[in-house]
Amino acid sequence: MPPNSRLPGFGKMGPFQRLEALRDGGLLTAEELRLLASPEPTAQSPGENVCLTLPVGLSLAPNFRINGVDRVVPMVTEEASVVAGAARVAGLLRAGAGIEAVAGERLLGGQILWRWEGAWGDLARLTEPLREQLIHRVNLRHTALLQAGGGLRTLSWRAGPGPGLAVLDLVAHTGDAMGAHLLDRLAQEVSDELAQVLPGRAVTGIVSNRPVGRAARAVARVPVADLARAGRSGAEVAADVEVLCRWAVQDEFRRPTHLKGALNGVFAVLRAFAQDDRAVAASLVSTAQADPGAVLPRWRVEEDLLLGEFSMPLPVGITGLALDRPPWSILGRLAGVVRATDLEELAVAVGLTQNLAALQTLVSEGIVRGHGVLHARRGRGQC
Ligand code: MEV
Description:
Elements: H1 15-24, H2 30-37, E1 59-66, E2 69-75, H3 80-95, E3 99-102, E4 107-115, H4 120-127, H5 131-139, H6 143-147, E5 151-159, E6 165-173, H7 180-195, E7 201-208, E8 216-223, H8 234-250, H9 255-272, H10 277-290, E9 298-302, E10 305-312, H11 328-335, H12 340-362, H13 367-377
Antiparallel strand pairs: 1-2, 3-8, 4-6, 4-7, 5-6, 8-10, 9-10
Helix pairs in contact: 1-2, 3-12, 8-9, 9-12
C-alpha cells in the first residue's frame, strides 16, 4: 500500500537528512533508510565495457494522487525546476480530485521481412489454414507470458518494400514485459516455423517501435481559482494556459517545446525505473509523425475548472527490473508500481502534471524568473 505522499519540508537538508526525514515521517522504515543510504554493490551495470558508474541524483516528488492512490514519485533529471514544478502542480491537482490514468493496451508489433519471388497474397493464402495453430504452438513456449495475460495475438501479411519481398506483421500482448526482446524472439520463432511450410526465406525479423493499440492516457482537473500565481488571477492563468495549448496545436515551432514540458516528467520517471527510454522516444516520434496532435497535452476551461488530458505510447516493462530488491522495491512501493500498467499510468500522469507546471509558469512569472531561481541555486549559469 503506497504511503500518504505528503513529505516533510526538505528545505536545505542534504540527501541523507532527507532520507531521515522520510523515515521520521513514516514513509521509510529504518531498514529501507539503511538500504537506500548505502546500497549494496550488488547489481553489475548491464552495459558493455563498463569502467565506472556515474552518480545520478534521484529525487522524490510528493503530493501525487493518481487513480485515488497517494504516491511519492521517483524522478531522475538534471533539470532543477522539474521536480519542484511536478510537486507543486501535483498538489493543485489533488484539490481537483487528483489524476486519473489508464495504461495502454500493452500491444507491441514485430516484423518479418520475407524474400519470395511470388505475390505476397500467395504467402497469406498458404499461411491462413495454419495461422491459429502456429500462434498456439509459439505461445506454448512462453508460459510465463501467458500467465501474465500476454502472448502472440495476430499474424498478417502485406506487400514488402519491392518486388520479391513481403512483410509479415506480428502483434503480441507483452504482459509485464517492455516487449522488445520478446518480439525479437517471437519473430525468430515464427520465421523458423514458416520456413518449414512456405516458399522463400526470412531476410530478418525484429520488433517494431510503431505503436499498435490504445496508448496510455491521463486526465486531470484543477479548480481555476487555485491557478492564481505571481499576481495573476486563476482565471487569467487558466485562460492563457488554454491559449498556449491552441498555440501548440497550430504552430509547429511551438509544438515540440510544449511536448517537451510533458516529457520532462515522463522521462524523469522512466529513468528512475531504468526503462528503455529510446524505445519510448521512437514510438512517440512514430505516433507524432502520423498525427502531431495525438501526443500533445491539452488543457481547456470548463466553468470553474481547468481540464487536462494527455496520451502517449509507453512501451515500458518491469520484468527486467528487480522490483523485489532495493532500491526498486522501495521506489515501487512509494510510487505504487507493481505491474507494468502502473508504471505507464505513473509516467503519463506525471507528464500531464509537468506540462501544466510549465504552462502555468510561462503565463505567470515567466520561465526565466520561475526556473532561473532554481538553476541559480544550483550554481548553473544557464538552462
Ligand atoms: C523546459 O524544459 C520546458 C518548457 O520549455 C516547456 C514549455 O515551454 O511548455 C518550459
